[in-house]
Design a protein that fits this description.
Length: 280
Amino acid sequence: VEFLILNGIECEPYITSDDRLMREHAWQIRQGLDILTHLIGPKAIVVAVEDNKPEAIAAMRKAVAGTQIEIAVVPTKYPSGGEKQLIQILTGQEVPSGGIPADIGILVHNTGTLFAVQQAVYEGKPLIERVVTVTGNTIHNAGNVWALLGTEVKHLLDCQGFSPVPQQRVVMGGPMMGFTLPTVRIGVIKTTNCILAPDHKELAEPGPEKACIRCSACADACPASLLPQQLQWFAKSKEYDKLQEHNLFDCIECGACAYVCPSEIPLVQYYRVAKVEIKE
């Protein structure tokens, strides 16, 4: 591994868990970087932070002062937080289709991971809690909380002042890649970075799916340069060989295609189902 990248970029709008972690625990993140540097000996270490996080940038600059670690400030544009997209922004290299960053000598880690590494090695503390952003128009006291893994989502909502509206939806994750929970009596898991409780104005219910008009807006929006329209047709007709030929597994499920679709086709849902069916 030649490049070690610290991904300090929030993966979606609304989420600020990485931002708070960098602001308040920059030194611990730096110690996590030191541990990984000792283990893998990279030639270059880059900390990537979005340009709309001045406090986090300042905190990280202070923490890495006097070292070879470089702070890279990147434009705030979704989905820059995807590791393959971030590698392309920082190095100009592309991870090969079906490959992983290590194939081109790069390792990407999230701020939460490095904080957990520091806690495990320096404090002897296992991963039992994480920072979760609790937000949305129905939350009176939106913010970030330390949540123990297994804590009920209902408890987090109640603690932050939750006033549900009729037919309230609660989303685990952000507005683009998150999924609506069937019940709030579900525990926080290691990947729960956000609990979003929007009202109907904030995150409108999707309308009925209409026919594809072949406008190509989805292909223009796709950060992985795939053909979402083709993939959807193959997913509908269960043509699994064609899906793999068209690199379905390079889809990062960012939701950009579904977001721009004028026919309101839930494209990502088709891909998720097709991936599971192929794996089965």
